[in-house]
Amino acid sequence: MRWIIRLDECLAWLSRLCGWIACLAMILMAANVFYDVVARYAFNDVSIALQEMEWHLYSVVFLLGIPYALRTDGHVRVDVFYTNWSQKRKAWTNLIGAILFVIPFAYLIANYGYSYAVDAYQMGEGSGDPGGLPHRWVIKSVIPVSAFFMGTAGLNMVTYAIRVLAGDRQYEGEHSAGGLA
Amino acid sequence: QDKFTLRLAETWGPNFPIFGDTTKRFAETVNKMSDGRLTVRIDSANKHKAPLGVFDMVKAGQYDMGHSASYYWKGKVPETLFFTSMPFGMNAMEQYAWFYHGGGMELMQEVYGPHNMLSFPGGNTGVQMGGWFRKEIKSLDDLKGLKMRIPGFAGEVFAEVGVNPTNIAPGELYTALERNTIDAVEWVGPALDLRLGFQQIADYYYTGWHEPATELQFLINKRVWDRLPADLQEIMRVAMRTASYDMLVHSQHANAEAWANIKQEYPNVQIKRFPDDIFQAMYEANKKLLKEAASESEMAAKIIDSQQNYLEQSRAYSDISERAYLNTMAEVE
Amino acid sequence: MIGMIMFGVALVMLMFGFPVAFTFGGVALFFGIYAEGMDLFAFMPFRIMSVMQNTVLMAVPLFIFMGVVLQRTRLAEQLLTSMGRLFGGLPGGLAISTILVGALLAASTGVVGASVVAMGLISLPVMLAHKYDKRLATGTICASGTLGQIVPPSIILIILGDVLGLPVGDLFKAAVMPGVVLIGLYILYILILTRFKPETAPAMPADDSISRGKEIRDALLTIIPPLALIVVVLGSIFTGIATPTESSALGGVGAVVLALIYRQFSFKMVWGAAKDTVSVTAMVFAILIGATAFSMVFSYTGGDYLLEEWLMMLPGEQWGFIILAMLVILILGFFIDFVEISFIIVPILAPVAEAMGINMLWFAILIAMNLQTSFLTPPFGFSLFYLKGVAPPDVRTTDIYKGILPFILIQILVLALIVIFPEWFGMSATY
Ligand code: NA
Ligand code: NA
User: Fold this and answer.
1) Which of C12, C18, C111 to mutate to test the interface with A (most CBs of A within 10 A)?
2) Can you give the residue ranges of the TRAP C4-dicarboxylate transport system permease DctM subunit domain (chain C) (predicted)?
3) Average pLDDT across chain A, whole number
4) Which of A59, B241, C141, C410 has most Cβ atoms within 10 angstroms of its Cβ?
């Protein structure tokens, strides 16, 4: 049990790290888009590289946000029955769901996403537009990276469910509503 | 006898006129000519959701073939740029002559070969219009700082003369132009432009120079191609070639019809040509950019060289045939 | 047939309460591997990449950010409260203000997820604090947050313009009247409901310590700054200073500036807002990714062809066709998302409609109104998920399902009105 707790906390830390990066990307993205609008009028300047940076940052926001939201239970559930279930039953649902759905799904995306990014790297792919960003493999590799952390977050659901089953933790305090104000 | 089914991914959405009709005609021809031995199943962008992933999907074998445009892959393989259409380059007839008789096809296979694919001409739009402008362009100064949706190499040429090429999602183009988020937009030609409604919000429709003969492409995975028996390969070749020809004449027909419509229903629309000083500046910029491209890759240099030599020779004849005829007609009328 | 079975299985699986996004993805995974093999999922990176490069969807996190900042500075709360005050002691005043604010958001963006989530964050807590019926509160928010799909600019209209070959500008113009009528009927519904059941939407308590005149003056003063922000967002779009996506960034930065002016600004506040934004954005896009895996398996196992076959059997006359087409879209809207319907079903219906001499502009508006309804219909209505994601835990899914019902009926009523009396909306049924 002790190593389960330790593993659980390590995995949780990974998801929080994803969240931290996503938050940073979020603020940078707002600033980036804002700057691009202002620059267009104030300096009559349009930079394709900065315009592309917008969607690069936006991709990081939602791709790394997904594992983070898995840890904070921010993902929507149809809770017609779920809310009224016992801790044990919730734990089993999350444990089985994570093993059957999250981890295999993450594995497939990571696997194919990896070849996708490697392909871009080998071709030296960059933007097709004048002045666009080079090194497309960087942003493409966010797909397998996100999937990898989705996998660890799925594993984290398992470890957390085990803790709940052992009576060490409860689900209530972890509800998304807390994180969403 | 063995039956074959090829899955084709196209960059266009379902029922996209002219472009989409080309793949449909191709599939129909192949099926009839092979007496049902070869079937082509077309997946439009709504199904594969990766309009600009056609190159990768065909390369990896997820699709057997694709229908797209070569210049979309410029970010992956810079030399693919040259097989669609170049600013101040050949017109459709000249370019087809280059592909089929002037060595263009061989150069194209040389570029696509390392990526395990074959590429064939896939239909032509003819001369694309130079774009919709909300204000008249009277001099080079009017272009300075102008925000225009114009992608690719032509965008780079425009950038050299002071335009700010801008990326706008196609869905937002109309609104962006209407509300002056951008000042000008380049799309295709009357038939397809009419659908987006630019004629309602921009008065100046400029004649083209940047894509005088936009050629689409059929991409085929090489392993798939090699598996086909020789007779089916030949059927494919013929079907691709007729589908391409069909698209060129279909473009001519649909554009003429759409232009007649615009003239009648939107008398506000005026056809304009950029002033000479702008063309001079862009022509120089184009030359400079081509020189840069040639210095970066041997293959690019080889293609540019082939195209320029061919253009020179072919144009000399176009001048005394097509151009002379059109000029005569213009005078007689 | 596999696609149809998959629908059924997904529906049952969702009831277990496991996160929706991964239930979609997981069910798709099993059926996909069974029917087509693992390599089908090699398409997933491409589909995810398409979402990444969809700059229109970029407005989702940005508008959420604007909503969260507004909420954290309590300015939105004051706006809604003040607007409630402006309607005096009128019962239902908060709901009406919500609808009006929703209409303003709708006019600045076509992104439903952002609107519903922003409204859910801004006005749900206020309504609940003032003892509103949970069902009425959530129904009002879902319905007004979804207005964005019919009130221009709208993604549905842009996609339909593309599929049907209609100028988007014409579609935008044609959609204005139906949008206005819909908003009017929502407000009318609140007025009628509160007349007969005043306890569902209590009036704001009157404050006797200040005069009516001062109350109105104070209310107007609190309304000005947030309204100015909305004007910046709307104005930047309407004057063309920015695209809808860019305007959402202007709105976000504008909200931060307002926080500075009202001394609510701190880096902690901005970081907190970013954290909330990331959570909600992740929830929205996880559903999008799960749904894209799902629709991928559905169409690659031939579900789209089967649907086409079924639709080909529709009977031929104009009115029969319109009614059946609308029913089909409505029913499919319960299960699959509007993009799928726009790209798969509409191209099948369009040539039939055109051959019958039906005015395609009118037809497009009918479809748009109908698709907007699909955002609200249980069990898969996206707006319902989005709102559930930001609602406090004691608001249950069943509350939202029940709350949205009257608004769905109003939408169907407006749809019927456009079908029967197109001239009221400045259109005609035929050319
Ligand atoms: Na073009
Ligand atoms: Na809207």
Assistant:
1) C18
2) 7-424
3) 87
4) C141
